[in-house]
Specification:
Helix content is about 40%, strand content about 10%. The strands form three sheets. A seven-stranded mixed sheet has the order 2-8-7-6-5-3-4, sandwiched between helices. It has a three-stranded antiparallel sheet with strand order 9-12-11. Helix 4 packs parallel to helix 10 and helix 5 crosses helix 6. The mean pLDDT is about 95. The longest helix is centred in the C-terminal third of the chain and has 25 residues. It is globular and about 60 Å long. By secondary structure, the protein is an alpha/beta fold. The structure holds pyridoxal-5'-phosphate (PLP). One of its GO terms (biological process) is amino acid metabolic process.
């Protein structure tokens, strides 16, 4: 028929999360704990900077790699916060969200048939991203018994020694798991031993409640084999402004920039001005949001505990990942909860096989709604 859909696209099913949003829209009293985005707006100083840039008529493209001033601010920020040392000129690329950074990186580094190990449960875009880039995804399941942390043994068991790249995300979406520097050590060792490159999505780095964030790129011998992703969507509540960045050695950012410059040209200019101001003056607002997420996290964990629902102690991002408290599949439980009580949670298997038997519960929702959602959840399992 002329416009034949590619085999790659046909092989990727639509997102399991979308289906739940559609179901949730069928009624108007639904409390959604399904969304993965902040319920706050971006700090005013960042919004004002965006408005100011428009008033000044700054509506042109920026350089492909992003405003140099912004890259310098990012370079200073990641050094202060995570001890990461990346050069603003050559090692940082500003992108249209972490989404574009991951996509462009996969297309820049993956040859047809290359294997990309994806740690599961995983953010829903990674496996499709690998497929669209022509690679072969290799699923590396993590287990609740390990608090969903990645271990040397899990990599070995999954056959990741033959992988070209390893895609990981800590703090994790969907489980809320985090990994300390010590825990990342054996993962780094595995990657060095087997010459595996690492793509580390650290978009939730600021949202850690019991430890400071450690980037795998700071471990010995890892900087040269790692691409680090971060952005403004989560910590700065800027999802709609679409801004992220990739950091890697010069030849790697040059390759990613090749894909970016032809595919995207440059990241949104208005958002770049907002991001610059966010880095300059919004630490207090970020701190206030993080404190609020932590309060909610502790509330949700303690409510599940009171109900006798097994839920491992998530320490990062804004998700907890309880076990389904009945004999049903995660999907059947989530559908029943939505239809009968009007509470939306995402079945864990939407994030890969390792998520079956769990629910992703987002606490990026006000405490009043969380209280009511937990009350309804309790009513549902007591019936
Ligand atoms: N990475 C992870 C782990 C996410 O959870 C999300 C959004 O939910 C993204 C990337 C997308 O980030 P961005 O809004 O910067 O494209």
């Amino acid at each position: 028929m002329g416009l034949d859909i590619s085999e790659r696209v046909r092989s990727v099913p639509p997102s399991g999360i979308r289906k739940f949003f559609e179901l949730a829209e069928e009624r108007d009293d639904v409390i959604s704990l399904g969304v993965g985005e902040p319920d706050f707006s971006a700090p005013w100083a960042a919004r004002d900077a965006a408005i100011d840039s428009l008033e000044r008529g700054r509506t042109s493209y920026t350089s492909n790699r992003g405003l140099l001033e912004l890259r310098r601010a990012i370079s200073g920020h990641v050094d202060d916060r995570y001890d990461l040392d990346y050069d603003a000129d050559e090692e940082i690329l500003v992108t249209t969200g972490v989404s574009e950074a991951v996509d462009a990186t996969l297309r820049a580094l993956v040859d047809p048939g290359d294997t990309v190990a994806v740690v599961e449960p995983a953010y829903i875009s990674y496996v499709p991203g690998v497929v669209f880039a022509g690679g072969e995804p290799l699923r590396v399941p993590t287990r609740e018994a390990d608090e969903f942390k990645l271990t040397y043994e899990a990599l070995e068991r999954a056959g990741a020694a033959d992988a070209d790249l390893l895609m990981l995300c800590y703090p994790n979406n969907p489980t809320g798991a985090v990994m300390t520097g010590e825990e990342l050590g054996p993962v780094a060792e595995f990657c060095r031993e087997h010459d595996v490159g690492v793509l580390s999505d650290e978009i939730y780095a600021e949202l850690q409640y019991e430890n400071d964030h450690t980037s795998i790129a700071t471990l010995p011998g890892m900087r040269e084999r790692t691409v680090v992703f971060n952005g403004f969507s989560k910590a700065y509540a800027m999802t709609g402004l679409r801004l992220g960045y990739a950091m890697a050695p010069p030849e790697v950012t040059t390759a990613i920039n090749r894909v970016h410059q032809y595919g995207m040209l440059s990241a949104p200019t208005t958002a770049q001005y907002a991001a610059l101001e966010a880095l300059r003056s919004c630490d207090d607002e970020v701190g206030t949001m993080v404190d609020e997420y932590d309060r909610r996290r502790r509330f949700v964990l303690s409510r599940f505990d009171e109900m006798g629902v097994d839920c491992f102690r998530a320490r990062g991002a804004f998700y907890v990942f309880p076990e389904v408290p009945t004999d049903e599949s995660a999907e059947a439980f989530a559908e029943g909860l939505l239809r009968e009580e009007g509470v939306a949670m995402v079945p864990g298997d939407a994030f890969g096989d390792g998520g079956e038997g769990h629910l992703r519960v987002s606490y990026a929702t006000g405490l009043d709604d969380l209280r009511e959602a937990m009350r309804r959840f309790e009513a549902y399992i007591s019936d």
